[in-house]
Amino acid sequence: xxxxxxxxxxxxxxxxxxxxxxxxxxxxxxxxxxxxxxxxxxxxxxxxxxxxxxxxxxxxxxxxxxxxxxxxxxxxxxxxxxxxxxxxxxxxxxxxxxxxxxxxxxxxxxxxxxxxxxxxxxxxxxxxxxxxxxxxxxxxxxxxxxxxxxxxxxxxxxxxxxxxxxxxxxxxxxxxxxxx
Length: 180
What we know:
The chain is mainly alpha-helical. It is 62% helix and 5% strand.
């Protein structure tokens, strides 16, 4: 099962990379993956807890389709992060030499995801599941921005994110030493 998951991850990484390159380069009329396929790929990475596509999942949180956004956020909340990873590299498209993806240290990545989740939390959306997925994902990205996002989610109209946020705030009082 591990080999199948690894093989599928390699294929899905390539598909996501190609999709994001097309989006980044602004090539019109070329869409190999639809929203359902992108959501499935996100689901796969989340369920296998495979972090190999973490930067691409973060990029998918900017997608205009809320289903893709929500699936990417859900996957980001499930993947296992290597806290000892201190490397930073940039991946280029081999043909155009355009920097498509920057792979950063885990600490920097946590800050970027936390900031992005706070940004989405501050936006208005009718999607209840989006806010629930944000609340779950924040557990994997402890930072000051995550704390702020949790505070905002405590006042969400939907009870799901409020309940998850109240539970998610508990560790902050000792781990991050938030005092107010």
